[in-house]
Design a protein that fits this description.
- By secondary structure, the chain is of the alpha/beta class.
- It folds into 2 domains: 179 residues, Rossmann fold (3-Layer(aba) Sandwich), CATH 3.40.50.620; 75 residues, Uridine Diphospho-n-acetylenolpyruvylglucosamine Reductase, domain 3 (2-Layer Sandwich).
- Helices cover 48% and strands 13% of the residues.
- It contains 12 helices and 8 strands.
- Strands 1-2-3 form a 3-stranded parallel beta sheet, with helices on one face.
- The N and C termini lie far apart (59 Å).
Length: 298
């Protein structure tokens, strides 16, 4: 079995002939996604987002367009502006998600999965953070290793673009990729990416089981639940209910409350305090035995 056949066997694509949208930056991951999707017989439409984050971004768009012309696939350029502020990565991601068509496929690999797990752990994530992306149909390459995908592209007739920001230690993900993961491999004396991916799959299965168990809880609205009843629940059950109930829907996805916010909400439920401030300018308060979540005025 050659490299292409081996990688195709690891992909989770839809059936051949299916129309799919691909997010292609021109880097080796997304370019590899494009080559594999075509080899799988999918009818692809490439989308490229130009954030104007680098002087070369316009050249990148031309490069991806030229590749699409050679492959005979449709290409759409999304010209966007990222609003100013802190954490450019997060803001750019939000703009991309709001701009790209729903269900667009991305080139996230098993290595991206492992990096995200470690980043989430450093942020104090719960079970959701320990099993990100698993089962997401927009991430068909989660069983593919980055090095193999890059080798496929290197052996192709196309040149992948290099984003120099991926080398900068100013970004947490880059330090996890270039420093933390190699150190973990050295300490464990094995490839921890595979271990983290396997753990994520197990945690995802357990999350699915918990979702079934807690479905009746999650059907209850915040204002309908008596705090006296909530205080009879095991702490893990109550934390899970609060984590889901207090999540926020944003343009870049659903944002659950932090562990600290959940702990403060627990104090409100127990009557230790009458209210607490939450992310997004929200306020959770208790009056008698009832909870109220006030949203900010716009």
């Amino acid at each position: 079995m050659n490299l292409l056949e081996n990688l195709l066997a690891q992909c989770h694509f839809r059936d051949g002939g299916t129309n799919v949208d691909l997010a292609v930056s021109g880097g080796p991951d997304s370019l590899g996604l494009l080559l594999l999707a075509q080899a799988a017989g999918l009818v692809v439409h490439v989308h490229h987002v130009d954030h104007h984050a680098r002087p070369s971004s316009t050249d990148d768009a031309r490069h991806v367009r030229a590749i699409c012309e050679r492959l005979g696939v449709p290409f759409t350029l999304h010209d966007v502006e990222v609003p100013p502020g802190a954490n450019f990565e997060s803001r750019a991601r939000a703009v991309r998600r709001a701009t790209l068509p729903k269900g667009v496929l991305t080139g996230h690999t098993m290595d991206d999965l492992a990096e995200t797990i470690l980043i989430n752990m450093m942020r104090g994530a719960g079970l959701d953070g320990l099993s990100p992306m698993i089962g997401d149909p927009t991430k068909p390459l989660l069983d593919v290793r980055r090095r193999d995908l890059h080798l496929l592209v290197a052996n192709s007739e196309f040149r992948a673009l290099h984003d120099e920001t991926n080398d900068s230690p100013d970004f947490v993900r880059n330090r996890v990729r270039h420093e933390l993961l190699p150190l973990l491999d050295e300490i464990a004396q094995r490839d921890v990416v595979v271990l983290l991916a396997r753990q994520a799959s197990v945690v995802r299965d357990e999350r699915s089981w918990l979702d079934i168990l807690t479905a009746p809880d999650l059907a209850q609205r915040l204002s309908d639940v008596d705090c006296r009843e909530l205080m009879t629940w095991p702490c893990a059950r109550l934390r899970r209910w609060l984590r889901v109930t207090l999540s926020r829907d944003e343009s870049d996805g659903v944002h659950p409350p932090t562990s600290d916010e959940v702990e403060r909400a627990l104090h409100v439920v127990r009557g230790d305090v009458v209210a607490t401030e939450l992310s997004g300018g929200r306020r959770l308060s208790r009056s008698g035995q009832r909870l109220t979540l006030d949203e900010p005025l716009h």
